Amino acid sequence: MKIVILFFTIVVTLARQTCALTPGDLSRVTFQQHVGTQISPELVFRDETDRPFRLGDHFGKQPIILVIGYYRCPMLCSLINDGLIKALQELPASVGSAFQIIDVSIDPAENTKTATAKKLEYLRQYGRPGAAGGWHCLVGEQHSIAQLADEVGYRYLYDPETHQYAHPSGLVVLTPEGKISRYIFGVNFDAKEVGPALVAAEKGQSSSTVSQFLLLCYHYNPITGKYGALILSILRVAGIATVLAVIAFVIWMVGRDRRACRLILAKDSAAEGPAVRPYP
Predict the structure, then answer these.
(1) Could you give the 3-state DSSP secondary structure of residue 82?
(2) Reported pTM
């Protein structure tokens, strides 16, 4: 009983530590659709080579898929890019020659070294030559991140307890001029949706607002089967408690067997009576 009480005490403590954001906070994490909005061309970030990356310098050429998240994200961000890459591999058009991808980190503490590692990972997964010039992984200052997030309607929150971000998931497709053409929500993307979205964006078309199936990147999500900090902590504690219970059970069984053996020997000795020494 004491072990059970200790277990739940630890779980409650971890829950308090890993759930700094309240349900009210999380309700403000949304992806508002600003279809037709012009992204500020003057916004400047830094790319994976640590060079200034002015968004406007990359407008006017090709449609752009904008992916917002953060590179050290333990949750959906990797799934978003994995889902995007799988969809892109089914398209005849290629990154670099037909369109661009811009990944932007919402974490101002992330550096270009992390961005470089992620870009290499994405390019290796994508596997098509010539994509490096059209795939950009950016980091930036807080003011640039906040303005871009505000323009695309990307509402996120930072959890100081877990040092993670609660944020929505999805893609933003921009026209070559940098206007928002449409949104694609989720983590698994269909090439039959991504392809036409790029074609429409290239023509400068903006689709109407679509109903969104918002997937929140924070703690556990039953759709993706991913676990967040709270659930992982509970599972770790449960695992440790199970191991300790098994060890305690083994020790108890061994002790019981030893006691049983001692009782049997004692009974046998009593039945035989005291040892009698024969006369010489």
Answers:
(1) helix
(2) 0.70
- Mean pLDDT to the nearest integer, 239-251: 76
pLDDT digits (tens, 9 = 90+) for 50-92: 999 999 999 999 999 999 999 998 877 888 899 999 999 999 9
Domain spans of the chain, in order of start = 20-218
CB 229 within 8 A of CB 239: no
Rounded to 5 degrees, what are φ and ψ at 117? -60, -40
Q: Nearest-5° angle of CA 109, CA 113, CA 119?
A: 110
Beta-bridge mates of residue 79:
none
Report percent pLDDT > 70 for the chain. 71
Output phi, psi for 30, to 5 deg.
-140, 170
Chain centre to alpha carbon of residue 117: 17
Helices of type H across 203-274:
229-272
DSSP 3-state assignment of 152?
helix
Give the type of residue at 16: R
CA 129, CA 269: separation in Å to the nearest integer? 86
Could you give the CA distance from residue 242 to residue 235 in angstroms, rounded to a whole number?
Answer: 10
Using CA atoms, how far apart are residues 140 and 123, in angstroms rounded to an integer? Answer: 21
Task: Give me 129's structure tokens.
Answer: 């030559």
pLDDT at 75: 72
The torsion of the CA quartet 247, 251, 254, 255, rounded to 10 degrees, works out to -170
Phi, psi of 279 (to 5 degrees): -70, 150
CATH 3.40.30.10 fits 20-218, yes or no: yes
pLDDT at 219 over 50: no
Could you report the per-residue pLDDT of 152-177, keeping only the tens digit for each?
A: 999 999 888 888 898 888 999 999 99
